[in-house]
Design goal:
The complex is a heterodimer of chains A (about 375) and B (about 270). Chain A is of the alpha+beta class and about 375 residues long. Chain A is about 55% helix and about 15% strand. Chain A starts with 6 loop residues before the first helix and ends with a helix. Chain B has a single domain, classed as 3-Layer(aba) Sandwich (Rossmann fold). Chain B has six helices and 13 strands. Chain B has helices spanning about 35-50, 65-75, 95-110, 130-135, 190-200, 245-260, and strands spanning about 1-5, 10, 15-20, 25, 30-35, 55-60, 80-85, 115, 140-150, 155-160, 165-170, 175-180, 205. In chain B, the strands form three sheets. A nine-stranded mixed beta sheet of chain B has the order 11-10-9-12-8-1-6-7-13, sandwiched between helices. In chain B, β6 (about 55-60), α2 and β7 form a beta-alpha-beta unit. Chain B starts with a strand and ends in a 10-residue tail after the last helix. In chain B, about 35% of the residues are buried. Classes of the chains: A alpha+beta (about 375), B alpha/beta (about 270). The interface of A and B includes residues 19, 48 and 52 of A.
Chain lengths: ~375, ~270
């Protein structure tokens, strides 16, 4: 399929693919086993300018957007969905600064994020607030020219590794969701600690950790956007970051498909390669069709966002739902094509299946995504009637 | 410090085609890469520049498509690239190539260190490095695994890889060094580098641009005559003695003796 990438996008894709093959693939299993953070790979990505692709040129970026970020995430995910997440999660943490940062905040963080000197993270989820984002309990209480933050964030990707965190906290608990604000908190701020490091099923080449705030003081100037605008920051950020999750799912799915096609020709049963059996052929055909459809939708969503379109929630959610459901199905089918070997750790497809599962869950469960899509459909239908 | 790195573009496949008439490699239609050993030379050149300052110039001789290899060198951080391309250079063996490169390097001017890979993966001769040094009247050290130090007074200390260790050698600059893969880990290009490479000017020199003796270049200057290129036949037969070592050796000796091999009657 020709997706009419620009010369620059093709260059980005090729370089990311080269890094994935030469640097990520050889260490993917080791990171999956150890569950540590891939700083050596982050350094390679930084030196290759891949953190620059989605950051505006005036802040030392290369001026691309979500499409460029998605191309990198897809290529890296073909080699390791976990290591790719270390990159993508920094993207998620960078997006709110690009979208809502003041000139001063952008100048302070974006050039260093572009150079890959520091990583970013985004912190919304809490023990009792996931899909129900309005149930956030973390407080940011105004005290003179400062906010005093107290509370715990859970399952934060790049937690402890990133240097800058966008934290969603309540500045006015009486106003419900309208009382939440997005506040930038730097690592090493007194009162900001890291808790439990999670032992995960998949994406083990990335680090997921608790953030603990105990009377953590930050200047009021650290607010992103306006006070009370925290959920707007979160929702607009997710609108832009979801194609990145879709791209991660897509890379994992493509890898599973490629491996299944190759293995089906090696594995012989009844004296013939299993690829000669129609039952296997039909599976491969469906897998390939779904992967291609996921790619088309992911790129469409990324390009829609980069075009500056105003309402992108629906297409962004569609890409995330479809690509992640595809990844889960295709990786499960790849294990099936491998048969008993596919279930074993010595073979690569079980990791793909473990890595795929999270894409249906994080950055808004697929159930929440479907709700976003449906509500948009109903809203538009009502508007047409008016 | 002025550093020059000579690179060669080679076919990226073991499945090379040979021109049946000239018995030379047919480069057209085969995907090409920078000779992998030259990648280590480029990396070492860039590291020297980062440490000591100066510039790195990449030089390559070959058909116009070699421009791609030079652009890749620029994407890695090389400052300047020179392509030696001329029909008159075609068909050069290692002698003529070394002469032509040496003349071009002379034209560049004062160069402190010339770096090359130990050999090219297509020809595998390893002759061009020393040949260039001889033509230029420079000292050379082949198969360097480490540049230990470069002093202010122009003394360089290097480690030369041997089968069972290494030699520590001292030389005066300017010097020509060929490197082995143990010396470093080549970097990947950066996007900024790739974008710069796309726009970069590649200097192209033909025989008129370089002061040289026409009798010493191209096919005319190449005493090497390739008679035939062929794949050596695979050795056939053979037998592997497996199992317990003592017993396997006994059986091997028995069979060798049975075949009439003159082997003494030692203890078995």
């Amino acid at each position: 399929m020709n997706y009419f990438l620009t010369e620059e996008q093709q260059m980005i894709k090729d370089l990311a693919a080269k890094i994935a093959k030469e640097k990520v693939e050889p260490v993917a299993l080791e990171y999956d086993e150890k569950g540590t953070f891939p700083w050596d790979i982050v350094e390679v990505l930084a030196k290759s300018d891949l953190f620059r692709v989605f950051i505006p040129e005036e802040y030392d970026g290369l001026g691309g957007g979500i499409m460029e970020m998605s191309l990198v995430v897809e290529e890296l995910s073909k080699a390791c969905g976990g290591i790719a997440l270390a990159y993508a999660a920094s993207g998620l943490g960078t997006i709110p600064i690009i979208l809502f940062g003041s000139e001063e905040q952008k100048k302070r963080y974006l050039p260093r994020l572009a150079a890959g000197e520091i990583l970013a993270a985004f912190a919304l989820t809490e023990p009792d607030a996931g899909s129900d984002a309005a149930a956030v309990k973390t407080r940011a209480v105004a005290d003179g020219e400062e906010y005093v933050i107290n509370g715990t964030k859970q399952w934060i990707t790049n937690g402890g590794e990133a240097s800058i965190y966008t934290v969603i906290a309540l500045t006015d608990p009486t106003r419900g969701p309208r009382g939440a604000s997005a506040v930038l908190v730097e690592k090493d701020t007194p009162g900001f600690d890291f808790g439990k490091k999670e032992d995960k099923m998949g994406i083990r080449g990335s680090v997921t950790r608790e953030l603990i705030f105990t009377d953590c003081r930050v200047p009021k100037s650290n607010i992103l956007g306006r006070e009370g605008g925290g959920f707007l920051v979160a929702m607009k950020t997710f609108d832009q970051s979801r194609p990145g999750v879709a791209a991660q799912a897509l890379g994992i799915a493509q890898s599973a498909l490629d491996k299944a096609v190759a293995y089906s020709q090696e594995r012989k049963q009844f004296g013939k390669p299993v690829s000669s059996f129609q039952g296997v052929q039909f599976m491969l055909a469906d897998m390939a069709t779904q992967v291609e459809a996921a790619r088309a939708l992911t790129y469409a969503a990324a390009r829609t966002i980069d075009s500056g379109a105003r309402n992108v929630s629906r297409i962004s959610a569609m890409a995330k739902v479809f690509a992640s459901d595809t990844a889960m199905k295709v990786t499960t089918d790849a294990v099936q094509v491998y048969g008993g070997y596919g279930y074993m750790k010595e073979y690569p497809v079980e990791k793909l299946m473990r890595d795929a599962k999270i894409t249906q869950i994080y950055e808004g469960t697929n159930q929440i995504q479907r709700e976003v899509i449906a509500l948009q459909l109903i809203k538009e239908s009502l508007q047409r009637k008016e | 410090m002025k550093i020059a790195v000579c690179i060669k573009q080679v076919p990226d496949t073991t499945n090379v085609r040979i021109n049946p008439e000239t018995n030379t490699l047919m480069r057209e239609g085969v995907e090409s890469i920078i000779n992998p050993f030259d990648m280590y030379a480029l990396e070492e050149g860039l590291r020297l520049k980062e440490k000591h300052g100066g510039t790195v110039t990449a030089v390559s001789m070959g058909p116009p498509q070699v421009e791609n290899a030079l652009r890749e060198a620029i994407s890695l951080g090389v400052d300047e690239a020179i392509l030696l391309s001329d029909r008159a250079f075609a068909g050069a063996d290692t002698l003529a190539t070394a002469y032509t490169l040496a003349r071009a390097l002379r034209k560049i001017g004062k160069v402190d260190i010339i770096l090359m890979g130990r050999q090219a993966i297509d020809g595998d001769t390893g002759q061009v490095g020393p040949g260039v040094a001889e033509n230029m009247g420079l000292p050379h050290v082949t198969e360097i695994r480490k540049i230990e130090s470069i002093d202010e007074d122009g003394t360089i200390v290097v480690e030369r890889l041997l089968d069972d260790g290494y030699l520590r050698l001292k030389s005066k600059l300017p010097v020509l060094l060929t490197v082995v893969k143990e010396i470093n880990e080549p970097r990947l290009p950066s996007l900024k580098g790739k974008m710069a490479a796309k726009k970069a000017e590649i200097t192209c020199w033909n025989h008129e641009d370089i002061e040289l003796d026409m009798q010493r270049i191209g096919l005319t200057g190449s005493p090497t005559q390739v008679m035939r290129i062929f794949t050596p036949p695979k050795p056939s037969g053979g037998k592997i003695f497996e199992g317990d070592v003592q017993q396997a050796v006994s059986e091997l000796l028995k069979e060798l003796r049975a075949a009439g091999a003159p082997i003494g009657q030692g203890k078995e």
